[in-house]
Amino acid sequence: MKEYLPSRIFVSGTDTGIGKTVVSAMLMSSLDATYWKPTQSGLDEETDTQFVQRVSEVPESRIIPERYRLNEPMSPHSAADIDNVKISLNDFQLPEYDTDHLIVEGAGGLWVPINWKESMMDLILHLNIPVLLVARSTLGTLNHTLLSLEALRNRGIDIIGVVMNGPEHEENKKTIEHFGNVKVWEINDLPDINKNTLKNTFNSL
Q1: Quick count: other Cβ atoms within 10 Å of Cβ 104?
Q2: Is 37 among the catalytic positions?
Q3: Residue 158: partners with Cβ closer than 8 Å, 6 or more residues away
Q4: Which stretches does DSSP call E strand in the chain?
Q5: Cα 30 vs. chain centroid, distance in angstroms?
Q6: For a FRET experiment, which of 23, 68, 86, 164 has its CA 20 to 30 Å from that of 193?
Q7: pTM of this prediction exceeds 0.90
Q8: For 128-179, how does the pLDDT look when each residue is reduced to its tens digit (9 = 90+)?
Q9: How many whole angstroms separate alpha carbon 58 and alpha carbon 107?
Q10: Coarse DSSP helix, strand, coil percentages of the chain, rounded to the nearest 5 percent
């Protein structure tokens, strides 16, 4: 997988809760990389940034603070309304980093709004970063993944590939590669998520 990865990677997904943060942690565990999640919605439990740092065991110097930290676990535009915060696309600038890679993790799926005018795809375009798309491996993934790939291409966004997360499903992998014209990697459910299991998984791809 490593040979396919550019220096800057935007980890997005076909939905929420499908493994973007695990994939981000895998990349952080395996590459000389810096991590940044531009918006975090929901602060009561461990945040994605905290999870990535904990399981990848990277020093704090390789973690960039979120630009927006919003209290409610909702879409950024709704969480920002509750917190009386105005999110502007111009507030997001690529952070400086001195590692080989920068891993940027999005919130939710591609069309999730960041405000009442712009979506996560607008943020990707603004930052000018190619996308590594994370998708579930199970029933329903074909429609969601192929629609997401079409949306990215319609906006002129470069696609690195697709990571299918979940139980192994060779037919879905072959179908997405064929109709999506894209490289697909599979990550099976991990019994324990830590630096070693993530690094071993990355090395097996």
Answers
A1: 24
A2: yes
A3: 130, 131
A4: 8-13, 33-36, 39-41, 63-64, 68-70, 101-109, 131-136, 159-165, 184-187
A5: 16
A6: 68
A7: yes
A8: 999 999 999 999 999 999 999 999 999 999 999 999 999 999 999 999 999 9
A9: 22
A10: 40, 20, 40
pLDDT of residue 189: 82
Amino acid at 30: S
Of the residues 2, 20, 37, 183, only one is catalytic, namely 37
Q: Which domains does the chain have, with CATH numbers?
A: 2-204 (3.40.50.300)
User: Residue 78 corresponds to which tokens in the numbers above?
Assistant: 């709704």
* Whether 75 contacts 113, CB under 8 Å: yes
Q: How far apart are CA 161 and CA 141, in angstroms?
A: 15
Contacts of residue 165, defined as CB under 8 A and 6 or more positions apart, other chains included, come to 18, 19, 22, 23, 134, 135, 136, 137, 187
Token pair 């111009």: residue: 90
Neighbour count for residue 80 (Cβ, 10 Å): 23
Rounded to an integer, the average pLDDT of 18-28 is: 97
* pLDDT value of position 105: 98
Residue tagged 């960039």 (tokens) = 64
Mean pLDDT, the chain, rounded, equals 96
